[in-house]
Design a protein that fits this description.
With 209 residues, the protein is of the alpha/beta class. The protein has eight helices and eleven strands. It has a six-stranded mixed β-sheet. Helix 4 links the parallel strand 7 and strand 8. The two termini are 31 Å apart.
Length: 209
């Protein structure tokens, strides 16, 4: 049985549809219920829904053989997993955003509010900018409005939330999309099964390009 961790939400539904089209369907997953684990013994697959940011933990620790996580999660938490395939969905960008009238005075330490402290630190380390990172877990956009930070580093899809809060993108610096990942030990012991999944889903990704 191949254990597959899917991210809850719209992205997970898109991902499941890719698996279904590739011949790894599990009809029970589409039933209207609150179950979290679904299996199709005939196809040898077991799916379960988890919080998107937890997928890589389930995969790294072997509770899932494979799963789908955003590139942002992989770069932020650096889980010890194999990245097998860019699924070309869930596309967005990591960006620096701030008030429209913000001017970056390089003589001052730049205060950066973000959930993604690792990604932000690495980005600014490359630019040589002196920064003070403020880790927040939600509603990042409010930080510059209340003067807690000068700018934010966050995922931007349409930019609508920024506009509503009188903020704008200053720099997009990292394209993000969903990636198929595998547990390193599972990849060794279930290589044939996993490579079959990669091949069939890869064909769909290439067809969509």
């Amino acid at each position: 049985m191949l254990n597959i961790a899917l991210p809850k939400g719209r992205l997970g539904e898109k991902v499941y549809n890719m698996f279904e089209k590739s011949g790894f369907e599990c009809p029970a997953i589409k039933e209207n219920n609150r179950k979290l684990v679904f299996e199709n013994a005939e196809k040898g697959v077991r799916y379960f829904w988890v919080k998107p940011s937890d997928v890589s933990i389930y995969v790294q620790r072997g509770a899932a053989d494979i799963g789908v996580a955003g590139k942002d999660i992989l770069l932020e938490y650096e889980p010890d997993v194999y990245e097998l395939l860019d699924l070309n969905i869930g596309k967005c960008n990591m960006a620096v955003a701030g008030p429209k009238d913000f001017y970056d005075d390089e003589n001052k330490t730049l205060r950066v509010a973000t959930k993604f402290t690792n990604i932000a630190s690495n980005y600014y380390a490359k630019t040589g900018r002196d920064i003070d990172i403020i880790k927040l877990n939600g509603s990042i956009e409010i930080a510059p409005i209340l003067g807690l930070s000068d700018v934010i580093v966050d995922i931007v899809e349409t930019g609508a939330t920024l506009k509503e809060n009188n903020l704008e993108v200053k720099t997009k610096f990292l394209p993000i999309s969903a990636r198929l990942i595998a547990n390193k030990s599972s990849f060794k012991f279930k290589m044939e099964q996993i490579e079959d999944v990669v091949k069939k889903i890869g064909e769909q990704v290439n067809n969509d390009d």
